[in-house]
Write a structure and sequence with these properties.
By secondary structure, the protein is α+β, with helices and mostly antiparallel strands. The strands form four sheets. It has a five-stranded mixed sheet with strand order 1-7-13-10-2, with helices on one face. The protein has a three-stranded antiparallel sheet with strand order 3-9-8. β4 and β5 form a beta hairpin. α10 crosses α13 and α11 packs antiparallel against α13.
Length: 328
């Protein structure tokens, strides 16, 4: 289905979301078309979409990112865990958008010397928590509950104390309205665009950003106004610290919940669009020959047919991305 795009997946994604969340009587295309269509969601999330456009995103990228990183997340994550291609178009679309803008933001910080994004936060348990995105987050809960004291990784030790790869897009934020003395208040957007922050009694997960290195990117992909960010599917999260007894939130409120600090890693990779651009180029110039030598045995035809990005070493990927953009 080479011409299929993420909008073609929308109704099945929303039907799955409605069914899983207890609205089985509404889990049908007629209801989605009338109440939860792409057009309806674009209107409901217009403020978030416009914030991305103002930050330099194309409207197409802003719409795809905003819609696919909300209620569509669980369905795409479930399909990815099961190895099902049913939502491949949506998964590839949102991965391309997130990876491309994550790379752009990282390069902009590298060139300008600007700091990494602020720490972002999310509730682990309960309504709209990380466990709802991907049930494998329960392994973090078990890791913390089963140990009396957190011991950070020692220099030279083999591997982190805890890590896992999330099948879901992960969103987090640092908006001042999210922090209350008793815990985290998760953001929820209702039909009509009404935004409500709802308190959840839960451990809080802190996502610390860091500069890119040979392992990949470690910074949140910021979405618009600097208080919300996301991480793409297949992102690895490593536990780096546990703070018992509470923590001081960015708004100065002392939150009486345990804080679990994690670090993300995701690959600096070519997007599907870049793979297709380079695939079409006649590699004849000196620059093109250098690019070919960097690629080595990578087979673009194989990857572009399946739509998967190619993961490459950091400097190699940077060079090929520049080459691809210059031959658009």
């Amino acid at each position: 289905m080479p011409n299929r795009n993420w909008r073609d997946d929308w109704n099945p994604l929303m039907i799955e979301w409605l069914s899983v969340n207890g609205y089985r009587s509404l889990a049908n295309s007629r209801y989605v078309d009338a109440n939860n269509s792409v057009a309806t969601n674009i209107e409901d999330y217009k403020n978030e979409i416009n914030a991305l456009v103002e930050a330099g995103w194309t409207r197409d990228d802003a719409e795809a990112c905003t819609l696919l990183t909300n209620d569509a997340r669980p369905g795409m994550a479930r399909a990815l865990r099961e190895g099902s291609p049913v939502y491949a178009s949506s998964t590839l679309a949102v991965c391309d958008v997130l990876i491309e803008h994550g790379r752009r933001q990282e390069e902009a910080r590298r060139l300008s010397g600007d700091p990494q994004p602020a720490n972002l936060y999310r509730n682990l348990h309960g309504r709209l928590g990380l466990m709802a995105d991907d049930p494998n987050w329960i392994s973090l809960d078990r890791e913390v509950r089963n140990r009396r004291m957190f011991l950070p990784k020692k220099a030279g030790s083999d591997g982190p104390t805890w890590w896992f790869t999330s099948s879901s897009i992960i969103k987090a934020e640092c908006d001042s309205q999210c922090f209350l003395p008793d815990g985290f208040a998760v953001r929820n957007t209702y039909v009509g665009g009404q935004v409500v922050h709802e308190y959840v009694n839960s451990d809080v997960v802190c996502f610390e950003s860091a500069p890119a290195d040979e392992d990949g990117l470690h910074a949140a992909i910021m979405l618009g106004n600097g208080t919300r960010g996301a991480f793409p599917p297949n992102c690895r999260f490593e536990l780096t610290d546990v703070i018992e007894g509470g923590f001081e939130a960015p708004n100065g409120v002392f939150v009486r919940q345990r804080l679990l600090v994690v670090r993300a890693t995701y690959a600096w990779q070519l997007t599907t669009r870049e793979v297709q651009r380079v695939e079409r180029v006649v590699l004849a110039s000196r620059e093109a020959l250098y690019t070919r030598s960097l690629l080595g045995s990578c087979c673009f035809h194989k990857y572009s047919s399946s739509g998967m990005g190619i993961r490459l070493p950091l400097e190699v990927a940077r060079h090929i991305a520049r080459f691809a953009s210059s031959h658009d």
